[in-house]
Amino acid sequence: MTDLLHDRSAWELTNCSVANALDVVGNRVSMLIVREAFLGTTRFDDFATRVGVSESSAAKRLAELTSAGILERRPYREPGQRERHEYALTRMGSELRVVLTALRDWGDRWASGSAGPPFHAVHRACGEAVHAEIRCRSGHLVPLGGTVLLPGPSRDTRGAT
Amino acid sequence: MTDLLHDRSAWELTNCSVANALDVVGNRVSMLIVREAFLGTTRFDDFATRVGVSESSAAKRLAELTSAGILERRPYREPGQRERHEYALTRMGSELRVVLTALRDWGDRWASGSAGPPFHAVHRACGEAVHAEIRCRSGHLVPLGGTVLLPGPSRDTRGAT
Fold it and tell me: Which of A71, B54, B83, B86 measures 20 to 30 Å from B136, CA to CA?
């Protein structure tokens, strides 16, 4: 196997999936809006209040997330009110659950301060704590250093050995 | 069990671990610098080049990541040169591996375009593809909707039912 990790200077990374993901969700407010969507928030005012940002910032990020396909807008109308929209995660958005869980785990462990985290996530079926972890398709836990990087379909081969 | 997800309007989220994590790594350049550290990059010039940012941007983010405890600076000196520093992930930094793996998975799936991802990560021991997933401490895979949020040590109880 040609492990790309063996010599980082021998290859250029283009079309990086981490960078591509961060182009969409690589800012704090967008990720916190996605967090709120997972926590059940659907309405514009609630996103702004609960994320703690201005209405203009919330509007900008909600529009970006909708345009990217992470949220979808649905019309609703309360009695006597004009039609408004609420926001829900698409399948693309709901798959960010692993990213948010990993961020929460890391924040619980390294950035929650002496007060500890505000909540614990547990498995509904058995009550045990929930976390994100790295496994291979055979089900093995993959430790640090246990991963090999192989060239994929879009790897730029300029300068590769 | 009091599942906080049951009524998002009944509680305020303070000291959120996701937000706390994003205070440290919630911008694109910082996360790509951490990606590079995992890929073996250690030197200032290489971080700037491989992330594709100006030296001043790289310097600012490397200083922030070092100050936060994610990277550590180590002195080195090449023959005939002045002493310089290289950067390595601390344990705190290396635990971001799950976040990066989750971002890469998501980017592979939703944001890599028709060209496909530039590389595949496989388990060194068995050759199978590596990914991030959500499990509980008993080892069960936790599906969407399979998580319950319980109040933790620092939850703000204002307005809670």
Answer: A71
For residue A21, what is the domain's CATH number?
Answer: 1.10.10.10
Taking Cα atoms as reference points, which of B99, B91, B95, B93 lies closest to residue B18? B99
Q: In the prediction, which pLDDT does A31 show?
A: 97
Contact B111, A24 (CB under 8 A): yes
Contact A4, A151 (CB under 8 A): yes
Which of A1, A3, A18, A36 to probe by mutation at the B interface, max B CB count within 10 Å? Answer: A18
Assess if residue A78 is contained within a domain: yes
Number of domains composing chain B: 1
Q: Look at residues A30, A17, A89, A104 and name the one whose alpha carbon lies nearest to residue B131.
A: A17
Query: Has residue B82 been placed in a domain?
Result: yes
Residue A8 lies in a domain: no
Shortest distance between the Cα of A80 and any Cα of chain B, in A, equals 23
**Tens digits of pLDDT across chain B (161 residues):** 678 888 898 888 889 999 999 999 999 999 999 999 999 999 999 999 999 999 999 999 999 999 999 999 999 998 999 999 999 999 999 999 999 999 999 999 999 888 888 889 999 999 999 999 999 999 999 999 999 999 887 765 544 43
Both ends of chain A: CA-CA distance in Å?
A: 13
Inter-chain Cβ pairs, chain A and chain B, closer than 8 A = 328
